[in-house]
Design goal:
The protein has about 190 residues and is mainly β.
Length: about 190
């Protein structure tokens, strides 16, 4: 389980009376610490329990793990976490572990190295695997609003006629206002 943007995300696992699961759930954390109930989001490509799960910025990684049988995995799956706690469909990385590993420790260093230590994979392991993570750039679906756009560019900005009578328009002074409106619209705020 990981936390992102005040949401908890629960990935795969083992259900005592049922088989392992590929399901992924998310919930919102309330200010008082309670949750709003669990919702399903995009599932893993197959059942996985005891995999190494870690978040890096808005990316979620699931590395290795176990499945029915037991079967142990070398696979790395990744996805993007959305602002609402849902995840995009999972993708399979071309990078795999050198051997099957479940139940291991996992960490990311400040210089963006990923470490996997110990664990189990057809026997207990004393290995340490590491790799350099690629940096990612995040593109947000923020609407583009310009102070120079119609229909508002020629409208007066606040009371600008009092302090700049020659050019009191949004076209001249509205950069902060349109930037704030972009952020509000991105978060679904359309009324203050």
């Amino acid at each position: 389980m990981v936390e992102h943007n005040n949401h908890l995300i629960l990935i795969g696992g083992k259900i005592e009376t049922d088989p392992d699961t590929e399901k992924v759930y998310y919930t919102r954390l309330n200010p008082d610490g309670n949750i709003n109930g669990w919702n399903e989001t995009n599932h893993l490509p197959h059942v996985v329990n005891r995999g190494q799960v870690i978040k890096n910025e808005n990316k979620l990684l699931l590395i290795g793990g176990a499945g029915p049988g037991p079967e142990y995995f070398t696979t790395t799956y990744y996805t993007t976490i959305n602002a609402d706690g849902t995840v995009e469909p999972w993708a399979t990385s071309s990078y795999t572990l050198p051997q099957p590993v479940c139940c291991a420790g996992i960490a990311i260093s400040t210089n963006n190295y990923l470490y996997i230590t110990g664990g189990y994979g057809n026997g207990y392991l004393n290995t340490v695997y590491y790799t350099k993570l690629q940096s990612s750039s995040q593109e947000l679906a923020v609407p583009l609003l310009k102070q120079t756009a119609e229909p508002w560019q020629s409208q007066e900005y606040d009371t600008a006629h009092l302090w700049n009578p020659s050019n009191p328009t949004i076209n001249r002074w509205g950069c902060a206002m349109t930037s704030a409106a972009m952020v509000f619209q991105y978060h679904g705020i359309n009324k203050l």
